[in-house]
Amino acid sequence: MSRAALSTKFFAAYLFLLGAVFVIAPNLLLSLFGIPTAEGWARIVGLLAFNIGAYAWVAARHEYKAFLLASVWIRIEAWLVLTALALLGLVPPVIALFGVVDLIGGVWTYYCLRSDARAHTLAGSRVEPVST
Which of 62, 60, 77 is nearest to 14 (CA)? Predict the structure, then answer.
């Protein structure tokens, strides 16, 4: 398994856990951060997070590089949007922490993709480098 796939599996596992908590007991997590919730919407968000985790897991398992690379930019975008929403006062500032997890995971996957491409190149394989 490539490093990029492994980093994406960690992200998928995070989404499975986060999604399950939001579906089963959203107030459990949100109350830790002092965030009021409409449980119905939180459960829907949990379902979406869990399902995205399933896509990420399958893509990582099958080394689907296009998905892995797209996930880098989508996770960075998630961080930007959540941070902007918090700075604009549209969501509680603690929401930006969820974006930080996305940012760290996205950057980790990006560097793993580059490292994997270099390793394949050094091994004599013809692998396209990750474009930025």
Answer: 60
**Which residue range is the domain that position 59 belongs to?**
3-122
> Is 96 a member of any domain?
yes
Taking only the tens place, the pLDDT of each residue in 10-34 is 999 999 999 999 899 888 888 888 8
Q: Under a CB-based contact definition with an 8 Å cutoff, are residues 60 and 8 in contact?
A: yes
Residue type, 92: P
Give me 13's structure tokens.
């596992």
Is residue 29, in this structure, part of any structural domain at all?
yes
Burial bucket for residue 6 (CB in 10 Å: 0-12, 13-18, 19+): middle
Is position 64 within any domain?
Answer: yes
Percent of the chain predicted with pLDDT > 90 = 64
- Is residue 130 assigned to a domain? no
Number of other CB atoms surrounding residue 122 within 10 Å: 8
Q: What is the pLDDT of residues 95-116, one digit of tens each?
A: 899 999 999 999 999 999 999 8
Q: What are phi and psi of 33, to 5 degrees?
A: -100, 5
- Structural domain count, the chain: 1
